[in-house]
Amino acid sequence: MLAAAGDGSEGATADTRRIEAHRVRAIEGRGVFRGILETKGACQGGPGRGPMISFHETVESLERVNDLLKSAAEVRSAVSHTLELLADFTAMLEYSHTKEFKDTGEALDYVDKVLVPRVSRIRDALASQTEPHLGRLELAHESASRLVLRLQMLSDGGGAGLVP
After folding, report:
1. pLDDT tens for each residue of 96-117
2. Among 31, 75, 93, 164, which is disulfide-ready with 25 (CB 3.0 to 4.6 Å)?
3. Domain map of the chain by residue range?
4. Quick count: other Cβ atoms within 10 Å of Cβ 17?
5. How far apart are CA 93 and CA 38, in angstroms?
6. What is the per-residue pLDDT for 42?
7. What Å distances lie between residue 83 and 45, 72, 125, 134, 144, CA to CA?
8. What is the pTM of this model?
9. What does the pLDDT average to over 51-70?
10. Residue 53, SS3?
11. How far is CA 45 from CA 50, 55, 144, 161, in A?
12. Out of 3-12, 56-65, 100-109, which region has the weakest mean confidence (pLDDT)?
């Protein structure tokens, strides 16, 4: 079952075999995971163990992280839109080089009335389109870090247990 989860590299295959071996030892009641899959009660991990993490809690945590990570697509879209706006702005800058302004005042007027407001709108659009999504990505990172910590404690044989 887990053997198919590897990405084809030797490291992933070795990791997959190691995880599968731990799973088998846990089911057989041997090794580091001995007794972790046993049901011990809602709040206790048994003697010397901290609170348990249930499979259901693990799945829920991963679903929350997955939902938060959907913001990455929104950030990509906002950056793509900003790149289009910057391409238009570049064309406006090129125009200012090819247009023959009558005097310095006319060139400064073009900069003040056209270029500066345009670049300000681009900056504001990027900030407003990415800020909420970047916050969600930070939450996803924090949630994933907490979950990894709990699962590492489980993997190391201390701290937490896994309830089916």
Report:
1. 888 888 999 999 999 999 999 9
2. 31
3. 1-34, 40-163
4. 13
5. 68
6. 39
7. 52, 16, 11, 18, 30
8. 0.53
9. 84
10. strand
11. 5, 14, 22, 6
12. 3-12
